[in-house]
Amino acid sequence: MPAGIEQRAAASGCVLAALACALGAEPPSVAQFGGAWRHSSGRGITAVTVADGDGAPTIKVWGECQPIDCQWPATRLQSDAHGGATADWHDAIADRHARLRLDNGTLTIEVDTAWRDPMRRDVHVEATLTRDDMTDPFDDRELPPFDRAIKAAFRREFGEIIPRPAVFNDPAANDCGGNGHGMATAYLPTSDGRGDLLMLYTSRDGATVMRAARKSNVRLPAGHVRVATFVARYPATTGDRLTGWEAAQAQINADHVEFAAKRGFAAPIVVFDNVNVSVDPSETGNRSPDAVRALAERYGVGVHDVDAIAIIDINPSSGGGGSVIGGAIVVNNFSYWKSPLDDRAWQAIARTTYHQLMLHHWGWQADWAPTCGGAHPWAEPFRAPPTLFGWEDVDGDGVPEILDTTPYGRSPR
Question: Which of 124, 171, 231, 374 is deepest in the core (most CB within 10 A)?
Answer without folding.
Answer: 231
